[in-house]
Amino acid sequence: MKLSRQFPLNALRVFEATARLKSFTRAGEELGMTQTAVSYQIKLLEDTLGEPLFLRRPRQVALTEVGERLAPKVGEAFDMLAEALGGIRDQSEATLTIHTTATFASHWLAHHLGTFQVENPGIAVRLETSQSVIDFSRTEGDVAIRSGKGVWPGLKSHFLMKSHFTPMLSPTLAATIGGVHEPADLLKLPIIDPQDEWWPLWFSRAGLQDVDFSRFPATQYGAQYFHAAAAIAGQGVAILRPEFYADDVALGRLYQPFDLLASDGSDYWLVYPESRRNSRKIRVFRDFMRKMMPDFQA
Q: Does residue 260 lie within any of the structural domains?
């Protein structure tokens, strides 16, 4: 028979407090129970054991011989449970697992996680990158940096930054057609991932409707990070979030021919399970992101 079925575990918890405090009233105050509820749990345990555990006397209770033998064993068992649970909690709070895309990880987090760890030396960071949207109930993780509308059932979301995009390419590639002077010039060059839904959105904003992308090879690299690497290598024009590539522009590896930006309404958000909003490590990381991101919104 399972222990949980053989013994009323809640009654054991009440017994431990009553034996330690020598009072039904004080045990009830500690456990947030009425004296009647405490008496009921003790009677339930006595009926299960078939032995009295306390001598009821006016204004005090005393342990019987059976109660005296049982009390230290139950106290030791609860101490062991508290130690085991405390160790798991301490170990869990010592590591923060962050899920994000490879692009956000390489172009923002990588530049700032060192500062977070200097400020919080007791928290180790484990970074997981994926293009998939993780399910916190199925995947181990504490927080995620996610692109979307900011509404996910069961998750708390904090706005981090707008997500907009524009074409970018190598200056060397632009020079092969005498420079890019108007949006239509981009269509003279290879387009990286022409099936990306960002392309028609940007060209529509630029005044070019119904661009036929089917004539371009259907290259797909899976992440904006790889699109940028291909563009830097001169393989074509990529559509990128320009703030992530300011260093490449400054070094002359990438070129943004137009100031025009487009958006699909999906922005960057910090998310985590609503039920874990009071976790210390999540709270610390949330406060760090609030400090580092000028547009952070609670």
A: no
